[in-house]
Automatic annotation (TrEMBL), chain A:
Keyword hit for Cell inner membrane: yes
Keyword annotations: Cell inner membrane, Cell membrane, Membrane, Transmembrane, Transmembrane helix, Transport
Topology term for the membrane: Multi-pass membrane protein
Transmembrane segments: 12-35, 41-61, 92-112, 119-138, 170-189, 210-235, 255-286, 298-319
Pfam families documented for this protein: BPD_transp_2
InterPro entries: ABC_transp_permease (IPR001851)
Upper taxonomic lineage: Bacteria, Pseudomonadati, Pseudomonadota, Alphaproteobacteria, Hyphomicrobiales
Keyword flag Cell membrane: yes
Protein name in the entry: Sugar ABC transporter permease
PANTHER family: ABC TRANSPORTER PERMEASE PROTEIN YPHD-RELATED (PTHR32196:SF21), ABC TRANSPORTER PERMEASE PROTEIN YPHD-RELATED-RELATED (PTHR32196)
GO molecular-function terms, A-Z: transmembrane transporter activity
CDD domains referenced in this protein's UniProt entry, alphabetically: TM_PBP1_transp_AraH_like
Location relative to the cell: Cell membrane
GO cellular component: plasma membrane
Length: 333, 529
């Protein structure tokens, strides 16, 4: 157990912060502490979690991506058009198309970074602008409401009415999210490729000396994020039941903040799927709680910002340093 | 051990190695007399880096199970040479690498590892965020196509490898939880996985303490005894002589020769490496007639140093030596205001001073050249001139703003004074060699007009040839009246260059020596006892 708290300090700290916030909120509001609300949170957070696990892979490999949310919007349009060509399609064809488009857009980033040696933040800020500019130019800012029926119909996989009258619902986005989370976890912790990604992010020169294929690492990381962005984009279109060109604009920073909050390091080599999911949930819970407490939505960003700072300080600093009077002699190596 | 016996019975070791004839003879003996077939022979290795020839027609060999040392100043081609065999660098066409019965024109990292060639890099090339087990058993996650990771097997491989070295570490903890000496062990353990036949070690002892170094040398001996050939690169000539059976010396990218270690001396290796002769003489002088600049009484910091009293006079160089962890650096940092003493007084020019930060200390005329110059003392990507003026910006102000003209003049003055070899003032500091960087670091502090200069391990990462230059500067500075504290864990450095030598152990001063009346061996005996 001690070893777990030591190797998973961030996750433990996040769980603690989430527990504290949940306790406070369950006393402060009437509706927060219900299963119905918990499942609601899961449903609304699905898209962000899908994006977050994708971004995690890029951060682990030592990169950063600003363009994925806009890329997801591009995928939404591309998929909507492609589905029109093939005459409607279904979930399978939709996910395949969206995923492939996403991978292509991610590969463009990887190409710029690997082939032309542009650092990832610069490369993806450029593609962010290019993707968004192209999208606005070609769509003229017009949304698509005319989506295939299968895409806009809510798919409830499981529902159950609770004694208090609230509903527990598991919808399709939650299932897709769960699959993405599991797939990412398998990729980065259970496959040799995933460990190579960690190693590459941790010490690129060390990885190179082992003969790890650096180019492949970039394409896998950004390709995976592209795949997740594509899937997330389709799920978001399903959830919103429309495709709006700037709907996801700005989402990249929210997701990035949540992933970093979850313990991923901007320098690479560090981060876990669990931490990443907890990071997204912490922010979602805070927003949800503030909402239920009737706090002005204008104050959300400010409070969320403060929570991120507090949580990151907690997870980066040992308890002894924050509270010197509880320190025990010899507790530290 | 694995060293060939062909010259072991030849006269008495060291018989006539000091003179040229003996050395040529032994050289031939060493290169031609090997009865064993070499494990590795490199022929006609040439390499060019950005227009500079890093290696010129180098040929050498390594025998199975021998401890072989590669010596030379930095920039002599050691690092490029050891990158050839593991396949990290590719030599120019025409080279041949004969290894264990096969000939290659160049290696690839994968082939090299498959064939039992391992490297422990100077920067260790480890993955600090990953667990100890993964670092050691990293080979198991290599390969082009994804495979499932077998953490159980990794843990077993790692535990076995550590056991072979007689070390216990928690293999599940991330490597960053361990100190540098243990990371070094991890790097070695990693090299042992997968039946290594040839292990390269690039400066493995650079950041280790004496006892850690001893332990490492034992490990190298053990490897050698087990039939693993070790090629060892080190700046520390004493350990080179202690550990290796043969020494290959490089200078300016070309081979000087391959020499048996038996009978070799440190000064002889230095001569071969630099092509110059150095005779070290005790520089100590009495400064008793000079006024006291620094007087410290009963200075203590719990757990770091205890009841330290010392004086340094104008123009005097006080040497402080002792093993790493003796509290030397903490003492220096306290004198420089970076740490606060728990008890005791510091008097500067007869007046008691209390520094609440190093800004106060700089203002009062104390300068401190930190131990870790590369990470703490100099800002590597910034220019030479910016680094030099960083502590004395007040001097180059004209009106309200910094003056480029004044900066240029100040920098030019110091560069001439200290004989620094630079390209342009605007070049990044990282373009300079270790010795020249150290001169810039010294100049940076001299520009603040100090009364007291504290030099903490000033020759770490500086070549043998350039070290003498640094100490020439130190001697000149002392003659101008600067009081100097010279801290080093290499006893000969303080012995030859200080006027008095204090020995620190476990936070206390346990001995005081005058180099004019004590032999080097006597101090070394006390320090390394």
């Amino acid at each position: 157990m001690r070893s777990f708290t030591r190797t998973h300090a961030t996750e433990v700290a996040l769980l603690a912060v989430i527990a504290v916030i949940c306790t406070v909120l369950s006393f402060a509001t009437a509706n927060f502490f219900s299963l119905g609300n918990a499942f609601d949170l899961l449903n609304t957070s699905s898209v962000n979690i899908i994006f977050a696990v994708g971004l995690l892979v890029v951060l682990v490999a030592g990169g950063i991506d600003i363009s994925f949310a806009v890329a997801a919007s591009v995928v939404q349009y591309g998929t909507a058009i492609a589905l029109g060509w093939i005459g409607g399609g279904g979930w399978v064809s939709g996910l395949v198309i969206a995923g492939s488009l996403g991978i292509c857009l991610g590969a463009i980033n990887a190409l710029l970074i690997h082939r032309f040696r542009i650092i990832s933040i610069v490369a993806t800020i450029s593609t962010f602008n290019i993707y968004f500019g192209l999208l606005m130019f070609f769509t003229k800012g017009v949304s698509i409401y005319d989506l295939p029926e299968w895409l806009t119909d809510r798919v409830v996989l499981f529902e159950h009415e609770m004694a208090d009258g609230s509903w527990i619902e598991i919808t399709l986005p939650v299932l897709v999210m769960a699959l993405c989370v599991i797939a990412t976890w398998v990729l980065i912790t259970r496959t040799t490729t995933g460990r190579q990604l960690y190693a590459f992010g941790d010490n690129p020169e060390g990885a190179r000396r082992f003969g790890i294929n650096i180019g492949a690492m970039q394409f896998i990381a950004f390709g995976w994020l592209g795949l997740m962005a594509g899937i997330g984009g389709l799920v978001q279109a399903h959830y919103a039941q429309e495709v709006v060109p700037n709907a996801l604009y700005g989402r990249e920073l929210d997701v990035l903040a949540a992933v970093v909050l979850g313990g991923a390091r901007l320098g690479g080599g560090k981060g876990s799927v669990l931490g990443c999911v907890l990071g997204v949930l912490l922010i979602a819970i805070t927003q949800n709680g503030l909402n239920l407490m009737g706090v002005s939505p204008f104050a959300f960003k400010m409070i969320v910002g403060a929570i991120i700072l507090i949580a990151i300080t907690l997870s980066n600093t040992s308890i002894e340093r924050l509270l010197p009077f509880v320190s025990q002699k010899g507790a530290r190596r | 051990m694995g060293s060939p016996g062909c010259w072991a019975g030849f006269g008495r070791p060291g018989m006539s190695l000091q003179n040229g004839i003996g050395h040529t003879f032994m050289h031939q003996l060493a290169t031609t007399g090997g009865s064993e077939k070499p494990l590795l022979s490199l022929h006609d290795i040439n390499m060019t880096f950005g227009g500079v020839k890093a290696l010129r027609n180098v040929s050498c060999d390594v025998r199975p199970g021998e401890a072989h040392c590669l010596a030379g100043e930095s920039g002599c081609g050691k690092s490029p040479l050891i990158k050839i065999t593991p396949g990290v660098s590719r030599p120019a066409d025409g080279a041949s690498i004969e290894y264990d019965g096969e000939t290659y024109s160049h290696m690839s990292p994968v082939t090299a590892q498959d064939r039992g060639i391992q490297v422990i890099w100077q920067d260790l090339a480890l993955f600090p965020e990953m667990s100890v087990a993964e670092n050691i058993a990293f080979q198991t996650v290599l390969g082009r196509w994804p495979k499932p990771v077998d953490y159980g097997r990794m843990r077993k491989i790692a535990t076995d490898a550590l056991e072979r070295l007689g070390i216990t570490l928690d293999v599940d903890l991330p490597l960053k939880e361990y100190a540098i000496a243990q990371r070094q062990i991890v790097a070695i353990a990693r090299a042992l996985v997968g039946e290594a036949k040839l292990v390269f070690m690039d400066e493995p002892t650079a950041s280790l303490t004496q006892s850690e170094t001893d332990h490492l040398l034992d490990i190298v001996r053990g490897l050698s005894a087990a039939g693993v050939a070790v090629v060892f690169v080190s700046h520390r000539l004493a350990e080179v002589l202690e550990i290796s059976s043969r020494i290959t010396v490089l200078r300016d990218g070309a081979l000087v020769g391959v020499y048996p270690a038996a009978g070799m001396t440190q000064s002889r290796i230095t001569e071969l490496m630099t092509g110059k002769t150095f005779d070290q003489q005790v520089r100590a002088k009495s400064r008793q007639d000079q006024p006291v600049v620094l007087e410290v009484k009963g200075l203590s910091r719990p757990g770091q140093f205890d009841d330290i009293s010392l004086t340094v006079r104008r123009g005097e160089t006080l040497g402080i030596t002792g093993l790493l962890g003796a509290g030397r650096t903490e003492l220096a940092q306290t004198l420089f205001g970076m740490l606060q003493p728990a008890a005791g007084t510091i008097m500067l020019d007869g007046k008691p001073v209390r520094f609440s930060s190093n800004r106060d200390a700089i203002k009062a005329g104390v300068a401190y050249l930190s131990e870790d110059r590369l990470s703490l003392g100099l800002i590597q990507p910034q220019s030479i001139s910016d680094n030099l003026v960083i502590s004395s910006l007040g001097k180059i102000v004209s009106g309200r703003f910094l003056s480029d003209e004044r900066k240029r003049k100040l920098v030019a003055g110091w560069i001439t004074d200290l004989g620094v070899k630079i390209g342009l003032q605007g070049d990044a500091i990282s373009t300079l060699s270790g010795g020249n960087q150290q001169r810039i670091a010294i100049a940076k502090w001299l520009a603040t007009d100090p009364k007291l200069l504290i030099l903490d391990a000033p020759t770490v990462g500086v070549d043998v040839g350039a070290r003498a230059g640094i100490f020439d500067i130190v001697a000149k500075l002392a003659d101008t009246g600067l009081a100097i504290i010279l801290i080093s864990d290499e006893v000969p450095e303080v012995y030859f260059n200080a006027d008095r030598v204090l020995h620190m152990a476990q936070g206390r001063i346990v001995g005081s020596y005058d180099p004019r009346s004590v032999s080097l061996a006597e101090i070394e005996g006390a320090v390394y006892a």
